[in-house]
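We modelled the chain as a single entity of 357 amino acids. Its sequence is:
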Amino acid sequence: MTSLKIIQPLENHIKKKQIVKGQEKILEKQGYRLVGNHSAVKICGWTKNMLNGKGGCYKYTFYGIRSHQCLQMTTSMFCASRCKFCWRGLKAPVSKSWYGPIDSPEHIINHAIDAHLSLLTGFGGNPKSTQELLEEKKDIRHAALSLTGEPITYPLINEIINAFHKRRISTFLVTNAQYPEQIEKINKVTQLYLSIDAPNKELMEKIDRPLFSDFWERMEKCLDLLKTRDYRTCIRLTLIKNENMMDLKGYVDLIKKGDPDVIELKSYMWVGASQNYYKVENMPHMEEIREFSKELIKLLPEYEYIREHIPSRVVLLAKKSLKKKVWINFPKFFRLLETGKEFKAEDYCSRTIMPNK
């Protein structure tokens, strides 16, 4: 039994929200919809593209996620890092630890889905959207817990992941690798991402501008835990030209420590608030991402190139032991969960994109 105070309903606790007073209207103008005291939803550009018949995001190409059925959200607006490359400008004040009330998982999910679908109502009259896509968008099949802030800091992170899974909604959780104690809580998640933004301590401090003085040790603990996880794991490198595309050995040491199933090498994008710190020249071209990945593979012979997504400027590497099975068999993932038995990442990997149901 948790000793944390779970709030439901939420209306009497508005003054304790993580969002600073006055931010709500600004965030809403930016396309966010706040959910309860500490969560938020925003429609991803790739969701709109999918509904407009322009194709899905790189997660569709890499893993089989159907973008028009994906809920982009966060369970916490605060963050313990102030990454210079982050394009999310306005957020709650940075913080090391949770503050304010704790909304229940079911309340967050219900209202997040409602807000998401409300933001998509305008597509009903869009001539570029097929009736099939419009019907499918109502059936949320994936939750990308990566919108802004640090979603993993939500005290009931394992409970909300389980609640998503009971609805047969897959979960993709992204973290800045500063909260190892939260990773330890998680029983099963469809895929866990660690963002590793630099190959050494000095660069990470410069780029991420972390609040924790022991940020490097925390990241190392997260990598140690990543190696022990049975579910799918990923290390994401956000590559910034003339900033962190160096010290290959440093990256290799960190990747070996975390031993992820897959590695994403993604270009920094010169958009949003990051333009205050970088220039357009800091955004690597696709060919530069390819070359960096080739050099990395030379030092990581256990990994191989799988595919890329040119619009996102991202390359996917995977363990050779997966035998190129990087797509996710979502129906099998949920069947395995329902058995209550232990299973591994390889058990729900596939060579082909599987249906959502």
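As a brief sanity check on the tokenised model: Confidence is low (pLDDT under 50) at residues 1-15. The chain has one domain: 23-350.
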